[in-house]
């Protein structure tokens, strides 16, 4: 399937954003550890969350999480620390994504996990049981999902968990989000030192909980605003000022690209409508370290190039092990549009304004939802841009194509 996309002359729209995938996935694991008396409200309907819901509801012997990396990490820890015997697997790409660091950490805590294929990679056979817990050390610059997976099972461990993070700590906002949510459900979890988190063996408490909207999903509407007509107006529903979501930094970064954010309700922890408008004064160049918000990188790489704003983005090492090698995917697809982006040190992307002749090729998505989502707004600069396999957006934002059509975009299916 292919979509050819045409942008409207001007936008004035109201969008109900999807629920936060990050919060939904954490809430579901914590919910399961409470005993499951109250299911969180407004759970994301994306693929990544749906596989967790299915696994926790039915607990099949073989759990197929498809392409959901978060589900693989979170469920591996959950299954290891609770009674049961399961095999957890996923797509071919998932079986190429490393999980050795998490498995070794869980084994150190007493988990019974066996690789059924290549050493260090899914699928896994897990014989779950209560783990003793105690002191554990892990590199701080690994995927924050490994760290969050370990933290969330901490209260269920016999002796709790003292987790020391060695070296630089990457994606700290996602760790803080996990700790905040754990405490929302009654956990005793705190930073006991600059690099150490201590979690007491204390059961989670079931409580009503409503998932807020997704700041990652909002980022694509910010991109649309930045690239579109200056008179455009976009109203986004359900965002929270002071959100613990790391990607809420998008509102500050896009202010540098000329997009103004106005909250109708600024009460802390209360969902609000957010109004996006354009203003003058985009920066002539953008340098930024995405180590704490890597999921925003594709949005800004594409947007800055199309706005002719040179950039130097660092902290991108984790993009190599996502749904695809996002660094190479971005370079290849932007070259089709005439932008020569350079890679450095395996973790940086640089564009100094270099161009080449565009080609008429379609944009490949590499089974990666964020490739489709971040390139769709390019229709403002390249009317009729064609995106291959656009259905990949269901991984995080299933209603995206319907939403941009309601905003005035035209989509032709091929």
UniProtKB/TrEMBL annotation:
Molecular function via GO: 3-phosphoshikimate 1-carboxyvinyltransferase activity
Question: Which residues are listed for phosphoenolpyruvate binding in this entry?
Answer: 21, 69, 97, 145, 326, 370, 395
- Reaction catalysed by this enzyme: 3-phosphoshikimate + phosphoenolpyruvate = 5-O-(1-carboxyvinyl)-3-phosphoshikimate + phosphate
- Is this entry keyworded Cell membrane? no
Principal subcellular localisation of the protein:
cytoplasm
Q: Where is the Enolpyruvate transferase domain?
A: 61-403
Matching entries from InterPro entries are given as:
Enolpyruvate_Tfrase_dom (IPR001986), Enolpyruvate_Tfrase_sf (IPR036968), EPSP_synthase (IPR006264), EPSP_synthase_CS (IPR023193), RNA3'P_cycl/enolpyr_Trfase_a/b (IPR013792)
What is the superkingdom listed in this entry's lineage?
Bacteria
GO CC, alphabetical: cytoplasm
Q: Which GO terms describe its biological process?
A: amino acid biosynthetic process; aromatic amino acid family biosynthetic process; chorismate biosynthetic process
Please name the Gene3D superfamilies in this protein's record: Enolpyruvate transferase domain
Which pathway does the UniProt entry assign to this protein? Metabolic intermediate biosynthesis; chorismate biosynthesis; chorismate from D-erythrose 4-phosphate and phosphoenolpyruvate: step 6/7
Any idea which UniProt keywords this protein has? Answer: Amino-acid biosynthesis, Aromatic amino acid biosynthesis, Cytoplasm, Transferase
The catalytic residues are: 295 (proton acceptor)
Q: What is its EC number?
A: 2.5.1.19
The listed locations are: Cytoplasm
Q: Which CDD domains match?
A: EPSP_synthase (cd01556)
Recorded coiled-coil stretches: none
Residues binding 3-phosphoshikimate are 21-22, 26, 143-145, 171, 295, 322
Q: What is the role of the protein in this entry?
A: Catalyzes the transfer of the enolpyruvyl moiety of phosphoenolpyruvate (PEP) to the 5-hydroxyl of shikimate-3-phosphate (S3P) to produce enolpyruvyl shikimate-3-phosphate and inorganic phosphate.
The entry describes its oligomerization and partners as: Monomer.
What is the similarity comment for this entry? Answer: Belongs to the EPSP synthase family.
> How is this protein named in the record?
3-phosphoshikimate 1-carboxyvinyltransferase
Organism, by scientific name, is: Hoylesella oralis ATCC 33269
